[in-house]
Amino acid sequence: MRFELVVLLFSASLCAQVSTPLPGPACGPAATNFKVALNKAPGAPAPRDPSKAQVYFIHDAGSRSGSTLGYPTTKLAIDGNWVGANHGDSWFSIAVTPGEHHVCATLQSSIVGHRVELAHFTAEPGKVYYFRTRLVMSGEVELLELTRIDSDEGAYSVSSNPMSVATPKK
């Protein structure tokens, strides 16, 4: 009986150590990381393709001072493919085909714990969609928040923050 109890406790210990959930099918490969540069003068947005929807991903770091030293990068995926990343107060956009899409947001950090947020939406041709991410920290609790936001709030955030240009790290 003691032997079975030891095996059971050892097995439970192993399971507890592997408690970090794997990203869902909306996320890209876990090993993909990005280097992010902020373009403070992005210029005019590219003309939109009327047969596609435009999706903006905005990160609100709450750092109006501009200092994001040590702040984690947030990477975003649609339908299992990483499409970009934000660092600090920034944004980027992509065009998507009409239909249902699944969004994944996660932190690229070895300091802040593993966080994944998921959402889905149905894109219509010619429409614009805004998603905001925020890292909410309170005491010892860190939460990544992914929210679809109003077009007025989204357009304001895009106009008042730099554009993120993310390139995959090798």
Secondary-structure blueprint of this entry?
Layout: H1 2-17, E1 34-39, E2 53-59, E3 73-78, E4 81-87, E5 90-96, E6 99-108, E7 116-123, E8 128-138, E9 141-149, H2 151-160, E10 163-168
Protein model, in words:
- By secondary structure, the protein is of the alpha+beta class.
- The chain has one domain (22-168): Sandwich (Immunoglobulin-like).
- Helices cover 15% and strands 45% of the residues.
- The chain is built from 2 helices and 10 strands; from the N terminus they run αβββββββββαβ.
- The chain has helices spanning 2-17, 151-160; strands at 34-39, 53-59, 73-78, 81-87, 90-96, 99-108, 116-123, 128-138, 141-149, 163-168.
- The strands form 3 sheets. It has a 4-stranded mixed sheet, covered by helices on one side.
- Strand 8 (128-138) and strand 9 (141-149) form a beta hairpin.
- The longest helix has 16 residues, at 2-17.
- It is globular, with a radius of gyration of 19 Å.
- The N and C termini lie far apart (52 Å).
- 28% of the residues are buried.
- Residues 1-22 have low confidence and may be disordered.
Which features would summarize this protein structure in a list?
alpha+beta; 4-stranded mixed beta sheet; Immunoglobulin-like; globular; disordered N terminus; 170 residues; 4-stranded antiparallel beta sheet; 2 helices; single chain
